[in-house]
Amino acid sequence: MNELKLDSLIKLLDDPDDSVFNLVLVEILKEDISIVDRLEHIWETSFEELVQQRIELIIQQIQLNDTKNKIKNWASQETLDLFEGIFLISRYQYPELKLKSIQIQLEKIRKDVWLEFKNSLTSLEKITILNHIFFDHYKFKINRDNTELPQNSYINRVLDTRRGNPISITIIYTLIARSLNLPVHYIDFDNNPLVGYFDKDMARLVNEEGSNSQILFYINPSNKGAIIGPKEVDYLRQSAENQENNHQPEPCPDRIVIKRLVEKLSYDYKQAGLLEKVNYLKEIAEIL
Fold first, then answer.
1. Engineering a disulfide at 269: which of 70, 86, 220, 277 sits with its beta carbon 3.0 to 4.6 angstroms away?
2. Cα–Cα–Cα angle for 164, 253, 63, nearest 5°?
3. Sign of CA dihedral 145, 147, 149, 152
């Protein structure tokens, strides 16, 4: 959009008629995220409260549309990056969030674990070290004091507070483990997702085939990374509180992992009465 047209539209933002504003909104929303810088400059130089409020609304809508498009593009890729998926969901609430800042925090955790690794270690010994660094040193844990807090789902907030919900904690744990070349996958399980440690030769096939026949053992991030076997998994299935949406404990493609996180966010916002956010997240879930 050229400057002259944008200036003409901005001049209409002080019109109290909502129908006029809606026409302006439709025109500006045709632009991509690059127009936000120009809108922010106009906001900073404006002294009219109505104009500032409307520019804020326009910027928010542009950012939401941009995030939705990026998530749609992410979900359509043949090979997905789980980190990019959870980052984009956090960017929904925190549009100014920088990818690099999150990568730096994750890399610090990865490096602290890697420094303790030796080539002679068994799979169980490596997980024991990961658990010690992740849960004892960094003190990540489930936020049981406020399990329905939406911030529990956003990676930047979880990294800052070291508190999350079972889904976000399991995703971050999985990301760290994968960055250490450990053959793990998120195991879809309502209320208490697990991590499956696979035979290395089979791990790459999980997203394609969904087979869990080669899981060597299960890890429970909701219980400080406790190692559990099939009997404990059966017990967790039987004691699951939410039977209505109970998913089977099986390897979960990364696209569905992010969908579970979106579903959790949607539920939490619904409990908080923020229906506008719920409706947006439902659109995201449909994309996934």
1. 277
2. 60
3. positive
| Contact call for residues 185 and 252 (beta carbons, < 8 A) | yes
pTM above 0.90, yes or no: no
Torsion angle, alpha carbons of 230, 234, 236, 238, to 10: 180
Could you count the other beta carbons within 10 Å of the beta carbon of residue 29? Answer: 13
Phi and psi, residue 136, nearest 5°: -90, -45
With beta carbons less than 8 A apart as the criterion, state whether 143 and 164 touch: yes
Residue boundaries of the structural domains of the chain: 3-75, 82-287
Classified as helix, coil or strand, 210 is: coil
Helix (H, G, I), strand (E, B) or coil at 220: strand
Look-up of token digits 């969030």: 97
Residue 142's nearest CA partner among 258, 196, 221, 246 is 221
Exposure on the CB side of residue 75, measured as CA atoms within 13 A: 19
d(CA 19, CA 28): 15
Residues 6+ away with beta carbon under 8 Å from 138: 109, 162
Residue 24, token pair as written in the block: 């302006």
Give the HSE-up count for residue 10: Cα atoms under 13 Å, Cβ half-sphere.
21
**Among 38, 67, 34, 39, CA closest to 53:** 39
CA distance 280 to 110: 34
Residues of the chain predicted below pLDDT 50:
203, 206-212, 242
Q: What confidence tens digit (pLDDT) does each residue in 178-203 have?
A: 999 999 999 988 778 999 998 765 54
Which tokens sit at 263?
A: 């579903």
